[in-house]
Specification:
The protein is mainly β. It is 0% helix and 52% strand. It has a 4-stranded mixed β-sheet with strand order 2-6-7-4, with no helix packed on it. A 3-stranded mixed β-sheet has the order 1-3-5, with no helix packed on it. It starts with a strand and ends with a strand.
């Protein structure tokens, strides 16, 4: 499963909560970036492993080109 964050420049200060729920088994939730944006300064995807319950993360836009994981 992949979730793509919108362009950081379009959402300054916005916080996006990503959450996965696994009722059985496990899976990886991939967090992708848009265009040249980065996630925590890295040009790539972030991975949240969800197994036998809930997992998630919160990302905040810097208003320019980066999504920073805050939780």
């Amino acid at each position: 499963r992949t979730i793509t964050l919108p362009a950081a420049a379009n959402f300054p200060g916005r916080i996006i909560i990503v959450r996965g729920i696994a009722t059985a088994g496990s899976f990886d939730l991939l967090i992708a970036r848009t265009g040249a944006d980065t996630i925590d300064g890295v040009a790539g995807t972030a991975t949240i492993s969800v197994g036998g319950g809930r997992a998630g993360a919160q990302y905040m836009s810097d208003g320019v080109s980066d999504w920073v994981q805050i939780a």
